[in-house]
Each structure stands twice: as C-alpha cells, then as structure tokens.
Amino acid sequence: MRVVVDFDLCESNAVCMGIAPEIFEVRDDDFLYVLDENPSESMRAKLEESVQRCPKQAISIVED
Amino acid sequence: MSNPVVVVGASLAGMHAARTLRLEGHDGPIVVLDGDSNRPYDRPPLSKQILSGEWDPERIVLAAANEDLGLDMRLGVRATGLSLADRIIETLASDGSTSAITFDGLVIASGAAARRLPGSDGVAGVHVVRTLDDSMALRSELEAGPARVVVIGAGFIGSEVASACRKRGLEVTLVEAMPVPLERILGVEMGAVCGRVHIENGVDLRLGTGVDHLETVTASDGSLRVVGVALTDGTTVPAEVVVIGIGVSVNTGWLDGSGLNLENGVVCDNTLLAAPGVTAAGDIARYPSERFGEMLRVEHWEHAIQGGEAAARRLLAEQRGEPGAIFDPVPWFWSDQYDRKIQLAGRPAPTDNFSVVHGSTEEFRFVTLYGRQGRLVGVLGMNRPRHVIQLRGLLETGASFDDACAKAAEL
Ligand SMILES: Cc1cc2nc3c(=O)[nH]c(=O)nc-3n(C[C@H](O)[C@H](O)[C@H](O)COP(=O)(O)OP(=O)(O)OC[C@H]3O[C@@H](n4cnc5c(N)ncnc54)[C@H](O)[C@@H]3O)c2cc1C
Ligand code: SF4
Fold this sequence. Notes:
The complex is a heterodimer. Helices cover 23% and strands 22% of the residues of chain A. By secondary structure, chain A is α+β, with helices and mostly antiparallel strands. Chain A has a single domain (2-62), classed as Alpha-Beta Plaits (2-Layer Sandwich). In chain A, the strands form 2 sheets. A two-stranded antiparallel sheet of chain A has the order 1-4. A two-stranded antiparallel sheet of chain A has the order 2-3. In chain A, strand 2 and strand 3 form a beta hairpin. Chain B folds into 3 domains: 5-113 and 248-319, FAD/NAD(P)-binding domain, CATH 3.50.50.60; 116-244, FAD/NAD(P)-binding domain (3-Layer(bba) Sandwich), CATH 3.50.50.60; 339-410, Enolase-like, domain 1. Chain B is globular, with a radius of gyration of 22 Å. In chain B, strands 3-2-1-7-20-19 form a 6-stranded mixed beta sheet, covered by helices on one side. By secondary structure, chain B is an alpha/beta fold. Chain B has helices at 12-23, 49-52, 132-143, 156-167, 183-200, 301-319, 385-396, 401-410; strands at 5-8, 30-34, 72-75, 77-83, 88-93, 98-102, 105-108, 112-114, 126-127, 148-152, 171-176, 204-207, 211-218, 224-231, 236-238, 241-244, 248-250, 266-267, 273-275, 278-280, 285-289, 294-296, 332-337, 340-346, 353-360, 365-372, 375-382. In chain B, helix 1 packs parallel to helix 6. Bound molecules: flavin-adenine dinucleotide and iron/sulfur cluster. The site of iron/sulfur cluster has 15 residues of chain A, from helix 1 and strand 2.
C-alpha cells in the first residue's frame, strides 16, 4: 500500500502526524513530509484513521 | 433484527456513525435522515473557503457520502418526534409527506443551529453561517461588494467571517460584547492577542459593546432591509450586510416529550448512551468527562467524528451484549483567520495559569500552555501546528504543567 498526499490540499495542521508519526512529519518549515511512502501492513489502521481525520481530505491510500 | 438503525443528522457525526456501523459489522438497514436537502457536507469551509469564494460547494461533500456503504439516505426529511417506548421516529419530508419509522437502534446527531438576534428574522441583509445555504446566500451578497459588513460576535466563526470579508477587500466592523474576544475560552491575555490579529488585518474592532438594535428601511413591498447596527455604547455603524455569530442552540426540539434527558443537549452516560438502544454524538451530545471532571458538550469537528464512531460502536456493543467503551477524548479544534491558524487542545478556563513556551505573541507565532492545580489542561498555538499536536499527547496522559513546559522547550 502506498500513501499519497495531495499537497495542494494539505494545510500542514499535523493531525496525521499526531496519529502516525512513523509516516508523517511536519517540520519547522511548516511543510508536511511523508517519511514512509510504502508503510507496512501493520500501519494500516493508523493510516486509515489519518485519512478519516485529515480535515482537508488530503490523504489517500493506493493499493499497489 | 429487521428494523433499521436510524441516524438523525447526515452531517459529520451522523455520517461517521453510519459509516462505522456498516464497516464494523451492522449488515441490516441503516436509514440516515437530514432536514437539509444538500448532499452531506463539511461545515468548516462554510466560514472559510466557501465564503471567500476559493472553493465551490462540490468540494465540501463529505467523503463518506461518496463511499458505497449501502445507506438508505433520506435527505430533505426531518425527524419531528420520538417515542422511546415504541421505538418510533416520526418524520416530515420537504414535500409535506410524513412517515413513522420503527427502529432497533438510534443515533441522535442533529447537531446545533445558529442563534439569531431577536427581531432579525426575515430582515434582508442579515445572515448567520451554519448551513451551506446560509454560506452561499452570504457569499452572493459579499460578491456584490457591500460598502461595509458588520459582524456581531468575535467568537471563532465571527472571526473567520471577518477574515473572509477582508480577503475580499471589504470594510469590516467586528462587534464583541466582552471587553476581550474569546476571553471565556482563552483568558484575557491570549484573547487580546487574537483581537490584535483582527486590528493588524484592518478590521474595525469594537469591544465591550453589545447590539441595541438593527436599523432597517422598509422597501416598497413592505420587506425590511438592514442599513446599520445601533450599539449599546450609543454609536451606530452603517452596514449593508450584517452577520450574526453569537453561538448556537442545540437541535433538540424534535425530542421534546420523548422522555430523554434534555439539558442543553442530549444527556448521555460516559459511553454516549442516552437510553437503551439510543446514542447521541457530535454537537448535540452532553456527557460526563472524567478527564475534565464536568459534563461536556463539545462543538468541534474532530470531536464530532470521534463521537459518531463511538456512538456507532456503542450500539454495536449493545447488540452483541458487550459493555460500551468510555468516551473521553481530548477536545481539539482549529480556526483559520487571515494567514493565522489557531489551534486549541484541551479545556482551559480564564482562571488557569498560563505560560508562553514557544515563539512570541508579538509575531503571532507561539505556543501557550495552560495549567490548573499543577496539571496541564490546555495547549494553544498560533501558526505552530506541529507543536500543538505533539503537546496534545501530554493532555491525554494527564501530564503535570511543569513537565509539559519542559517537554515544550525540547520541541
Ligand atoms: C461555519 C462553521 C465553521 C466551523 N469551523 C470549524 C473549525 O474550523 N474547526 C473545528 O474544529 N470545528 C469547526 N466547526 C464545528 C464543526 O463543524 C461542528 O462541530 C460539526 O459540524 C458538528 O457536527 P454534528 O454532526 O454534530 O452537527 P451538525 O454539523 O450541526 O449537523 C447536524 C445535522 O442534523 C440535521 N438536523 C437537525 N435537526 C434535524 C431533524 N430534526 N431531523 C433531521 N435532521 C436534522 C441538520 O440539518 C444537520 O445537517 C465549524 C462549524 C461551522 C458551522
Ligand atoms: S492531516 Fe491532512 S492537512 Fe493535516 S498535515 Fe496531514 S495531510 Fe496535511
């Protein structure tokens, strides 16, 4: 599974980082960085929670 | 089990409840009612991107409304009454037809409605912002380029409306009855910082004054149109458009006489159960929070999602004869004003001690922690989202104020 963030929508509010810091990081430049674009299956629940909680609907999961 | 689970309210809490019911094992019918005929939509953009004209309404349809969940969506259908004993909901559709639905489970997610000023109903030029139709009606008046917009109430929504108007280059007067905006939520000092953001952005901010009455003119057809706002300090501000942002009242009218405990919301237990087979979630739910030692009713976006999910799980647990999980999340919300993002986690009170632990309020880029009896109770940030989200975790674990300050210094 692959994590895709629509950076045109993302507003760097760090909600996803609060849920899955292993995957998402908002740095001091106020931009979101995806640390792991192909997370392991064990991260699925946290990733799905991030998709639901992103106030901008900016995150999606693509199945390879 | 052939009767449906009914969800009243197809907004954030209701759609997440319906989604969770379906995805977590309820395969029977799920009926979702909403008096609003629009496809389920997200509200935060109503006072932000929709009002400023950056987004069109298609952009704010809730994701759950596009998922294939097999929901029986009845939009434009209002719940008008509830009989707990018979487990029946009465409904009224926009075409005037009525029906009665017998249910096995019920999620009450009918949210809240914007409060209006007495005497403002039906006066042209006077607006509230709660529904998509509200926001689009105001937007079309703003597009006409009114000479001045008066916003009544400098809470979060009023502040966002002022910001959206300034983005359009309109002159704005923001009227607040308290001497400091958001004082009851953020305290005097931090509220004053939020007030300064408006002034920096060219808003005419009038504090410590209420509205005496709206000045109106009568058109030839007898209808009224607002032309100004008379304030209790004796001044009058001319206005072509007035927006009222003085808070909400909960949509519990249809539950009157149902036997549910209604007290500024639907009173639930600590698992969001309001009666056997009946749960409530989102802006309408009031529940005992052990974390904060009081009954809480929270009007935040994320909390409505969490509540919707929890209310669904509560019904599923009841169906399976399992105990319900305790619902006690840390409230968190954001507000976008001008180029600033304000985020608040927890429930600070004006009497709490506080400390700016990062950045500076002069630069409008900072983090403030609130403490009560040595405990961390709130995290406020302006344009520091990462810090707020990271420190929010400390509220969840019940950290002391001193430990939180130390942790903040490391970020
Ligand atoms: C303009 C605006 C901006 C906001 N911005 C932010 C923000 O930036 N950050 C943040 O954290 N929160 C924000 N919020 C708050 C957040 O949107 C709410 O907390 C959230 O919408 C609550 O969801 P809910 O489903 O509980 O209730 P609501 O969204 O109020 O939905 C209730 C639904 O029930 C329906 N309904 C009511 N009565 C009946 C009935 N009798 N029968 C059938 N249907 C009925 C209504 O039509 C409505 O669709 C904002 C709210 C508004 C209005
Ligand atoms: S939650 Fe969404 S908007 Fe916020 S930082 Fe993550 S992707 Fe961006």
